[in-house]
Write a structure and sequence with these properties.
Length: 194
């Protein structure tokens, strides 16, 4: 597995060190639960072993003594970030791709943080749009719906004001309702007063 890592950053609040991972190849697998990776199958276990071996080789120079793979595995836990993917659709199986984004070192726990980057179901792409892009699309749809609702409210208020001012004009002709006849009658009224 070919990837690069950043220098460890120290978090004073929880006294952890975080090492970011860049350019890691995705781990693609078929699963019935797209929210997690189960590392018991041969393929997933082999991919994890390669990742851990390469990560230890890259990260060991940053520690006072080289990381030991046996200790690493005994302290290892996983955290999974599914982003904005819609996981409410229940299908039989999914094809998902995960990438490791960081490893956080606490005094007795080493956590690999994984991010879901794609998900397909039954041969159809369910959520192949990047999570940030999907979020932006949902936000645009929400704003457009809000603009429509505001426009409807304005129309209703204008209609209410119109009916309050002019009443219901059932039975009147078009010429009686035109604004020209209103202005003509006003000018006639004003000329009679003079």
């Amino acid at each position: 597995m070919s990837f690069t890592i950043g220098k460890p950053s120290f978090n004073v609040n929880d006294r952890t060190h975080t090492i970011a991972i860049q350019d890691a190849p995705p781990l693609e697998l078929t699963t019935e639960d797209p929210t997690t990776i189960v590392f018991t199958a041969d393929t997933e276990k082999a991919a994890l072993d390669v990742f851990v071996k390469d990560f230890i080789a890259l990260a060991s120079p940053y520690f006072s003594k080289p990381l030991d793979s046996t200790i690493f595995y005994t302290r290892l836990v996983h955290a999974f970030d599914t982003g904005d993917f819609d996981l409410s659709d229940t299908r039989v199986s999914y094809i998902v791709s995960w990438i490791p984004v960081s490893v956080v070192f606490a005094p007795s726990v080493y956590t690999i943080h994984w991010r879901l980057i794609s998900m397909e179901s039954s041969g159809l792409p369910v959520a192949t749009v990047a999570p940030v892009h999907a979020k932006n699309i949902r936000l645009k749809i929400r704003r457009a719906r809000l603009r429509c609702a505001l426009a409807r409210l304005r129309v209703e208020k204008l209609a209410q004001r119109y009916y309050a001012k002019y009443g219901n004009f059932d039975g009147l002709s078009e010429s009686e309702l035109s604004s020209d006849s209103d202005s003509d009658s006003e000018s006639t009224d004003s000329s009679e007063k003079i």
